[in-house]
Design a protein that fits this description.
Strand order of the largest sheet: 5-6-2-1-10-13-12
Number of domains: 1
Helix content: 25-40%
Number of helices: 5
Shape: elongated
Number of strands: 14
Largest sheet: 7 strands, mixed
Strand content: 25-35%
Structural class: alpha+beta
Radius of gyration: 23 Å
Distance between the termini: 68 Å
């Protein structure tokens, strides 16, 4: 079996998993810098600047769709399982089967479009204005200071918010979107204790399955340029690399954290820093006592 067909089969398996990810309308970071400041009494400031990726608006969302034009499937020798040239009758049979399924494919495409629009605050990803509509939705929310589309579901954003530390906080939260995969989650406990988790900043974490899946697709992208007879394999679209820095600055007592080097001192208090890369497996986490 030629390599590009083996690659296509592996890609199909990944895309099957991707369809489940899309059901949650996954959002993931790209390249970013983020900071959480907990130095003022009963206040917090959170910033995120960099890329944010909406997989529902990307080419990845279209890769698993049945092509609109007929493309014959490969034929194989029953004994050796090696690829062979399809006969005219085999191609005609495949075409007849493909044409017979046209109505069912159209209905399935419409169902998926409605499902995705329901997960994206009514925004239809198939609509050419979907990106502009999402941009307007984000900019009307507090904290979203800049939202610039870079294409293929990728946005360059700047988010900054300061608030009272009397409630839990999560980023991103988007109006009418499901909160399925937060980048950062601040959880208040009794006794002025705060737990900070950042599941979205782990590139290979069970809490962020999209990033792990995209890592697998990155490997396939490399294989797609290789074939045993100089033919191109399936082309994978580009997708962002999860890479950046997450920092916590606090005047409180650090009870626990999972940084590599522990806390450092600054004029504003203790500083915890995580360098995030495609190899990051453990989500940043810290436990702080903010008692004054």
């Amino acid at each position: 079996m030629r390599l590009h067909h083996a690659t296509r089969m592996a890609a199909t398996a990944l895309l099957a998993g991707l369809s489940m990810v899309l059901s949650g309308c996954f959002i993931t970071p790209g390249k970013f810098t983020s900071e959480l400041i907990l130095t003022e009494p009963d206040q917090f400031t959170f910033t995120y600047e960099g890329e944010i990726f909406f997989v529902g608006l990307s080419q990845l969302a279209e890769m698993g769709n049945t092509p609109e034009t007929f493309e014959p499937k490969p034929c194989f020798n029953d004994n050796t399982f090696e690829e062979r040239e399809c006969s005219r009758n085999e191609i005609a049979g495949q075409r007849a089967e493909w044409e017979a399924g046209a109505e069912a494919r159209a209905a399935e495409a419409a169902r998926k479009s409605e499902q995705m629009a329901a997960l994206m605050a009514g925004i239809d990803p198939a609509n050419p204005e979907a990106t502009a509509e999402l941009t307007r939705l984000l900019l009307r929310q507090e904290g979203w200071e800049k939202v610039e589309a870079k294409g293929d579901g990728l946005f360059d954003i700047r988010y900054s918010v300061t608030g009272d530390l009397n409630h839990d906080f999560m980023f991103p939260v988007i109006e009418d979107f499901p909160t399925t995969n937060p980048f950062v989650h601040v959880i208040l406990r009794k006794g002025n204790v705060v737990r900070i988790n950042a599941p979205g900043f782990a590139a290979e974490n069970d809490a962020n399955p999209l990033a792990a899946m995209m890592g697998g697709m990155a490997g396939l992208a490399g294989l797609s340029a290789i074939s045993d007879e100089g033919e191109d394999g399936p082309k994978m679209p580009e997708f962002p690399t999860v890479e950046g820095t997450f920092t916590i600055v606090t005047s409180g007592r650090i009870m626990a954290n999972n940084t590599d080097e522990g806390a450092s001192r600054s004029p504003n208090g203790e500083v915890l820093t995580w360098a995030i890369s495609p190899r990051t497996k453990t989500a940043p986490t810290a436990l702080l006592d903010l008692s004054r």
